[in-house]
């Protein structure tokens, strides 16, 4: 039975938000034959989220036994997933009904793709939704195509926090970059340069806007420029040495 792994990095202060994320996962209906697992890696010296995750039978929790940061936390979670596909879900975000099935359908229709990026709305503190602007067309994206936009802007035109990708591809690229921030952007940029993907026209997840979002922290803002420079340097290096990746090798239900 093919497995879809959902990967979440979290810390002790995210308990209530993580519970809501888990409820949005529990409401997902996967295609017949698929199984869901939720791999949560807690960044901290001791576990605080076990009680939250205990209510979800599909969840598994590991602890870093230290404060390692989001990039390393995500990479540790990546070592523990068993699915051939990984969906990234931040601890404070929510999936809408049908989100995971939409991504799986794209892989089923296009077995050569390595990643699926989904549309999102911002979920404001008052419960209203604000569309997340997309500066790129939806549908099939050839290898390298989306990075024409990335090379001209600070980041790619999609939110990398809601990505579904082939596990083998993420591992082949070394997982998340050891950037102080935008580590997911660095990984996606490398993957999108080498492999084709799909951008869904459907809105399938919500970015919860709140005061404790990582991107609102002073440290994140202070280090963002250096992290963006790392993303652009990595992309330029890939193009200069002419790296290429072979076609996807579908397995299981893909």
Automatic annotation (TrEMBL):
Taxon lineage: Bacteria, Bacillati, Actinomycetota, Actinomycetes, Pseudonocardiales
Example GO molecular function: glycosyltransferase activity
InterPro entries in the record: Glyco_trans_2-like, Glycosyltransf_2, Nucleotide-diphossugar_trans
Native species: Kutzneria albida DSM 43870
CDD domains for the chain: Glyco_tranf_GTA_type
Record carries keyword Transferase: yes
Pfam families: Glycos_transf_2 (PF00535)
The protein's name: Glycosyltransferase 2-like domain-containing protein
Keyword tags: Glycosyltransferase, Transferase
Transmembrane domains' residue ranges: none
PANTHER family: GLYCOSYLTRANSFERASE, GLYCOSYLTRANSFERASE EPSE-RELATED
Family: Belongs to the glycosyltransferase 2 family.
